Amino acid sequence: MQFLEESLIELITQTSTNLPPDVRQAMGIAIGGETPGTQSSQALNIIASNIDMAQEDEGPICQDTGMPTFVVHTPVGVSQIAVKKAIRHAVAEATKRGKLRPNSVDSLTGKNSGNNLGAETPVIHFDQWEENEIEVKLILKGGGCENKNIQYSLPCELEHLGRADRNLEGVRKCLLHAVWQAQGQGCAPGALGVCIGSDRAHGYDLAKDQLFRTLDDTNPVPELAKLETEVMDEANRIGVGAMGFGGKASLIGCKVMAANRLPASFFVSVAYECWAFRRLGVRLDAASGAITKWLYRDSSRPVEKMAHGEGFPLSGREVVLRAPLTEDQVRALKVGDVVLISGDIFTGRDAVHAYLMKNPPPVDLHGAVLYHCGPVMLKNGETWTVKAAGPTTSIREEPYQAHVIREYGVRAVIGKGGMGKKTLAALKECGAVYLNGIGGAAQYYARSIEKVLGVYLMEFGVPEAMWHLRVNNFIAIVTMDAHGNSLHADVEKETGERLAELQVK
User: Fold this and answer.
1) How do the pLDDT tens digits run along the chain, 505 residues long?
2) What distance in Å separates the CA atoms of residue 488 and residue 183, rounded to the nearest whole number?
């Protein structure tokens, strides 16, 4: 199969960079239905521009290219060993080309393999079938939305919704709760893949498999088709909105299946997917490995543009900031302000924050802007280039952030999804601010980065290193200010009240 590896590289590249038509259509409906001028509308416009940029430049839609998960069907007689070897080679090569971020980390040592290969990565599921072609489907599901997966064991008590029993009404409550609990941390508007029943482990597997359905299909089981429609309608009435800013579009898809279970168990397993719903597939000639057909899209049809006009048209009311920042500049900001940042910023994710709890930073962070970001980077000689650089989910840094702000004088934190009470208290005490970027908009933000000035703590791997970046007009929204205000807390409270209204149909 002389073409197999290149066919797989093309599948990985297109999955990472080119959103499928059914997802584009769903996002187009979300964009068209949002109230113009709102923060959710602004976020959706940036998302639309980012989708176009990624497809045009063949750059990752989101910097977090997730855990590559392949579902492969092979005819009898085709060597699955050879296919697995080709998949692993293709994953390593796509990583080298900057289509995937190196995401495979040894769970014992913390060392990043650098090529997305390691124990049980990538994930590959094989099955045989009676067709004469090979079918390969791929989903790239990032860590932010993966962290918002959730599993319920019925009966149970749900916040704002009361008791969920072992029936479809109990399942409905679980799915509404799943959307609510994700808030902006899962990069809403999202989609749900759901399995009712099975055991704990296989239930999650089957839930993720539901994400391979197209968003515009109809469930063949009438009861489940009705449930999917109801959840879509009610979830979008809760008001989580794009990025958790509040708004009309919280969910773009809900796909449910049921599996037999043990008498003692009634699990509802939910695979939460973000708006950057990267899923494609191919049919391959079993003899040559060449692509004979694309799944989920018609490759002969041109890709329609998502954006209409500028991604984020400036109003003239934006606050222009140049880093490093002063306390007076930061205390003048309030929730809802849109800021344009220029100057030098530093990235810092989980490993950097844990390091800073015990060690001084390798750079002076007084007045600094700290960006929760794990970029996709390529090196040419001694020069690094940013290939994708959107914000990661900030709540993971909640155990560390207050200390880092107080100890080292950080003035602004950029991330997505907001942070908790400890960080909010430190922002007020020290005169610092939390700025929400648009999750998944990796190409949009990469274009705001003018130069890579340096890198520190490279022993943590590319995503977790501390990158010194020079940015120009980096757009973000103040969602937690130095006066104790938090948009995230407000939206969570408001949406919780609306969720409670859906307790009884």
Assistant:
1) 899 999 999 999 999 999 999 999 999 999 999 999 899 999 999 999 999 999 999 999 999 999 999 999 999 999 999 999 999 999 999 999 999 999 999 999 999 999 999 999 999 999 999 999 999 999 999 999 999 999 999 999 999 999 999 999 999 999 999 999 999 999 999 999 999 999 999 999 999 999 999 999 999 999 999 999 999 999 999 999 999 999 999 999 999 999 999 999 999 999 999 999 999 999 999 999 999 999 999 877 888 888 876 677 777 889 999 999 999 999 999 999 999 999 999 999 999 999 999 999 999 999 999 999 999 999 999 999 999 999 999 999 999 999 999 999 999 999 999 999 999 999 999 999 999 999 999 999 999 999 999 999 999 999 999 999 999 999 999 999 999 999 999 999 999 999 999 987 6
2) 8
* Sign of the dihedral through C-alpha 59, 60, 63, 68: negative
Sequence-separated (6 or more) residues with CB below 8 Å from residue 451: 469, 470
Residue 118 to residue 120: CA distance in whole angstroms: 6
Hunting for tokens 């409906």 — which residue is that? 29
Alpha-helical (H) ranges within 333-486 are: 350-356, 398-408, 421-430, 442-446
Q: What sign for the dihedral angle of Cα 10, 389, 116, 254?
A: negative
For residue 143 the two structure tokens come to: 């860590």
Helix (H) or strand (E) holding 89: helix 80-96
482 sits in the region (left: phi over 0; alpha: psi -120 to 50; else beta) called: alpha
d(CA 46, CA 40): 10
In whole angstroms, give the CA distance from residue 488 to residue 144: 16
Token output for 187: 């990069």
What's the whole-model pTM score?
0.95
Closest CA to 449 of 430, 419, 475: 475
Among 86, 109, 113, 36, CA closest to 312: 36
Round to whole Å and give the CA distance between 186 and 195: 19
Secondary structure in 3-state letters for 315-348 = CCCCEEEEECCCHHHHHCCCCCCEEEEEEEEEEC
Contact of 282 with 220, CB cutoff 8 Å: no
What's the CA angle centered on 397, arms 372 and 92, to 5 degrees?
55
Tokens in use for 458? 């490279």
Closest CA to 488 of 432, 428, 415, 429: 415
- Quick one: which of 40, 402, 58 has its CA closest to 188? 40
Backbone φ and ψ for 343, nearest 5 degrees, come out as 115, -155
Report, in this order, helix, strand and coil percent for the chain, each rounded to 5: 35, 25, 40
Full strand arrangement of the beta sheet holding 278-285: 123-129, 69-75, 133-140, 278-285, 291-295
Strands of 141-250 (E only): list them: 150-153, 156-158, 162-164, 190-197
3-state SS assignment for residue 383: strand
